[in-house]
C-alpha cells in the first residue's frame, strides 16, 4: 500500500533563506534547542548535508510512534538548484512497523522577492499485512516543522533589522 500526505505554508522569507534552513544540516542543528517537545537529539552519523548524509533522530516521547523513540534517515536527494531535499528512513521508526518506505521531501518555491512556499511531503509504502499502521502517518510533525521554520526565519529577520 502506497500513501502520501502533504502540507504547504507560505514563508515570509526569500526562497534562498528558507532553503538555507531546510536544504542541509541547519534545521537539525536548531530544532533540538528550539523544539524540545519534538526532538531530544539529532546526531550526524556521516556526511556534510549532501546526498548520502545520515542522521540519527531521537524524538521526544510520543512524537514518533509508540514503539520507537529514534530512527536513522539518509539524505537521498539534495537539489540546490530546484531546492528539493528528500530523506528516507533507513533504520528504526516506521520501518519497525512494516513500512518499506518512509520518505520526507521539502521543496521550496520562490513566490516573490520576500516570499516563498515550503511544501512538505511524506510518501510511504507499507506491507499488506501492516496496512492498519498507515493510520499512524501524520502530516502534523511537518506542520510543526514548517511553522517553526517560519517563526525562526521571521525572528532572525527582525534581529537583523534591529542591529
Describe the protein in words:
The protein is of the alpha+beta class and 163 residues long. The protein has a single domain, classed as Alpha-D-Glucose-1,6-Bisphosphate, Chain A, domain 4. The chain contains 3 helices and 7 strands. It has a 7-stranded antiparallel sheet. A hairpin with a 7-residue loop joins strand 2 and strand 3 (54-59). The longest helix is centred in the last third of the chain and has 23 residues, at 140-162. The protein is globular, with a radius of gyration of 16 Å. The model has no long low-confidence stretch (mean pLDDT 93). Residues 3-132 form the Bet v I/Major latex protein domain. It comes from Flemingia macrophylla. InterPro entries: Bet_v_I/MLP, Plant_def-hormone_signal, START-like_dom_sf.
Gist of the model:
It is built from three helices and seven strands. With 163 residues, it is α+β, with helices and mostly antiparallel strands.
Helix/strand/pairing class, anyone?
Answer: alpha+beta
- The overall number of domains is 1
Overall, the morphology is: globular
Q: Quick check: average pLDDT?
A: 93
The level-1 CATH class: Alpha Beta
**Range of helix content:** 10-25%
At CATH level 2, the architecture is 2-Layer Sandwich
Relative strand content = 35-45%
Total helical elements: 3
Query: At the fourth CATH level, what is the homologous superfamily?
Result: START domain
Low-confidence parts lasting 5 or more residues at pLDDT below 50? none
The major beta sheet can be summarized as: 7 strands, antiparallel
Number of strands: 7
Note the gap between the termini. 52 Å
Radius of gyration: 16 Å
The H-and-E topology, N to C, reads as EHHEEEEEEH
What name does CATH use for the topology? Alpha-D-Glucose-1,6-Bisphosphate, Chain A, domain 4
Biggest sheet strand order reads 1-7-6-5-4-3-2
Family: Belongs to the BetVI family.
Domain Bet v I/Major latex protein: 3-132
InterPro entries: Bet_v_I/MLP (IPR000916), Plant_def-hormone_signal (IPR050279), START-like_dom_sf (IPR023393)
Keywords: Alkaloid metabolism
Amino acid at each position: 500500500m502506497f500513501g502520501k500526505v502533504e502540507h504547504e505554508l507560505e514563508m515570509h522569507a526569500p526562497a534562498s533563506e528558507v532553503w538555507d534552513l531546510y536544504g542541509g544540516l541547519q534545521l537539525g542543528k536548531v530544532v533540538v534547542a528550539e523544539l524540545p517537545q519534538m526532538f531530544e537529539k539529532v546526531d550526524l552519523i556521516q556526511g556534510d548535508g549532501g546526498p548520502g548524509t545520515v542522521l540519527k533522530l531521537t524524538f521526544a516521547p510520543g512524537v514518533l510512534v509508540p514503539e520507537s523513540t529514534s530512527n536513522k534517515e539518509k539524505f537521498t536527494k539534495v537539489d540546490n538548484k530546484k531546492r528539493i531535499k528528500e530523506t528516507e528512513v533507513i533504520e528504526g521508526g516506521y520501518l519497525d512497523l512494516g513500512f518499506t518506505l518512509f520518505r520526507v521531501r521539502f521543496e521550496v518555491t520562490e513566490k516573490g522577492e520576500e516570499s516563498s512556499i515550503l511544501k512538505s511531503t511524506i510518501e510511504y509504502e507499507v506491507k499488506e499485512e501492516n496496512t492498519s499502521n498507515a493510520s499512524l502517518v501524520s502530516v502534523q510533525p511537518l506542520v510543526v516543522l514548517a511553522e517553526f521554520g517560519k517563526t525562526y526565519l521571521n525572528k532572525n529577520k527582525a534581529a537583523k533589522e534591529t542591529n
